[in-house]
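Before the break, one more example. Copy the sequence into your notebook; we will annotate it together after we see the structure.
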Amino acid sequence: MRIHNLSLGLARAYLVEHEAGLALVDAGSPGMEKVVLQTMQEISRQDLRIIVITHAHLDHYGSAAALRRATGAPVAVHLADASAMQRGDSPLGSPRGRGRLVKALFPLINFILHPEPVTPDLSLDDGDDLSSYGVPIKVLHTPGHTPGSCCYILADRWAFVGDLLSTTGGPHMQRYFAQDWAMIPASLNRLKALHPEKIYPGHGTDLLDGEVLQLLGSSSTQSGAGYRNA
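Here is what the structure looks like once it is written out:
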């Protein structure tokens, strides 16, 4: 199994290459479908079986509709975020820090990027197993950033965490936007309880080791120590 780390505009996405098929975790910003299709061409694979979205923000589902048209792969998202994605919305919730500036500019960002609404083919719930789509992925509901934010656990070892965590400027929990700030620490603890070996964030070029995840919030993680390149 191989994981391709893709920069898709404002966020990162991950193409999982498994012998039984490909899975795409997140679809990046609008207009980034060519990067995914080019990567599939480079690895001589056209069997994209499923597109799973971590949460309904335009930098994570923006190219999903175009990729579905190009590949026929179904799009899946947690049921609590399905309606927002279907409307082409990106509910930011309550901002903190520099998130306030981004929220003020968001109408312009949304106008420029103009995300295409996506009606999901699959509405997911906590504990769902997507192995029937060729890749051993399980759904872990980790709300807070959005009501339907999810982590996707691959082969019980690797976690794709969307915006629950970031490694931009050093590893940290979500600190800019949340629909419910109180839920984010609990969601992080749900992820920690699974003891994943590697963590793939939605923002930041680096992966997190499982050991760093368990220590998240300590002085070593806040200084950016202990994480490595993808």
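The first helix runs from residue 33 to 42. The CA atoms of residues 33 and 166 lie 23 Å apart. Try to locate both features in your own notes.
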